[in-house]
Task: structure prediction
Amino acid sequence: MAYTSEFPFVYLTADVVAFSIQDDALCTLVVKRRDAPHRGRWAFPGGFVGETEDVEKAARRELREETGVDARGLRLEQVGVYTAPRRDPRHRTVSVAFLAVLPADVALRAGDDAADAQWSPVDELLEPRRLAFDHGTILSDAVDRLRRDLERSGRATEFLGDEFTVAQLRRVYEVVWNRPLDPGNFQRKVTGVPGLLEDSGYQTAGGRGRPATLYKAGPATEIWPPLSRERDR
Amino acid sequence: MAYTSEFPFVYLTADVVAFSIQDDALCTLVVKRRDAPHRGRWAFPGGFVGETEDVEKAARRELREETGVDARGLRLEQVGVYTAPRRDPRHRTVSVAFLAVLPADVALRAGDDAADAQWSPVDELLEPRRLAFDHGTILSDAVDRLRRDLERSGRATEFLGDEFTVAQLRRVYEVVWNRPLDPGNFQRKVTGVPGLLEDSGYQTAGGRGRPATLYKAGPATEIWPPLSRERDR
DNA sequence: GCAAAAGTGTTAGTAATACACCCATGC
DNA sequence: GCATGGGTGTATTACTAACACTTTTGC
Result:
């Protein structure tokens, strides 16, 4: 027994909701729980924060340990904190949830703490009781945040590799927002934001149709005016 | 010594950033700290969350205990969680920050835990070292959130009483955004959002100029298209 | 009447939308 | 040639922004 306290305390954990697009579906990285509670169910990679460890750093560490994804240089964004008194039946545990975006081709490797790690479609995970603890709520909040982010930020490029076409970027938006976008208007919009996309000088080759310009993500982080996803609901 | 743990733990606190407009300035409710650390400096009302207590409930309780503000029915919104290992020098403490909006005329009463409670202008509190702990960062985040909220939500009415004029509502926006708005365009915009404002049937009397219609907040919670504050920076 | 504040009209510019159309490639 | 997807042109509609103008009060 190593720690004592005069006051009630809580455990602090960090969880990572890592998105990517697999087979044209928005997916998140989940690991199968090996131990009780919720043994055998899926959960987001995450775990206890070290005594003097930064929460964001703990999130990166857990992501690497449980899934093999190297999170150095990955942008983590705080989604929220989950604090319900009985959300973990063992002891009160407060979880800080982070959102991350990964390209489709990252390599996975299940770690020691997890029986398995895999990409699962968000649609399936949002069905009742698919996820352990309150991770369904966390996922729902994270998806909302991601959808909003894409309106004003250039984050969508993080779903893609270093070089990509406008059509690939549009596909990201269509999958995340679950609605079709007009190819022509999208093209004009994103190429018109100063600093958002940089022409790599290369083009696609070998596909059907006219070759497309390959772009790199530019220095701009904000899209103004924002892309609209709601106007015509 | 009441509590023991095998693992490192943290204390959980809830803090409330309560905004109101006093003398045409955006203010937040702060209390003077009676004890170390940061004795004598200003901090947001807040404190430890009870063992089985909901965090949001703790926030309401602390607001009432430390400032005398009755927080029943008040809308609290999570701003974020603050977790830096040394943010409290005594022991690692994780704070969940909430944002609230109050009308200008709420009654204050300093509570047991605080030597004093008062409204202070945000501009002053944002100066270096005015606030205890990392409350300067919390305030900065809360102000950003508030400014964004006003773009799309009808929250601005919470700064006012039950009945108010369009000019008073516009003044709220001008103070929070710190920029002038065109009276005519603002009028058209807010009265044009279905369900945002409801005509109370009354008018102002006794002031200079033409009497204004008194409105009540309507059921609409979303302003679409949003009010724009950035287009012409 | 005059000042002041509420509220409306008008116009120009900007952006979103829909969709026609041309371009460049594989086959 | 034809199909396919990349990319541009263009008309319509919607909204913003600027500001002139009318309305209704106190003095």
Residues 182, 184-185, 189, 205-211, 225, 228, 231-232 of chain A lie near DNA strand C (CB under 10 Å from a C1'). Chain A touches chain B at residues 1-12, 48-55, 78, 80-81, 83-85, 92, 94, 96, 224-225, 230-231 (CB under 8 Å). The first strand of chain A starts at residue 3 and ends at 5. The two ends of chain A are 57 Å apart (CA to CA).
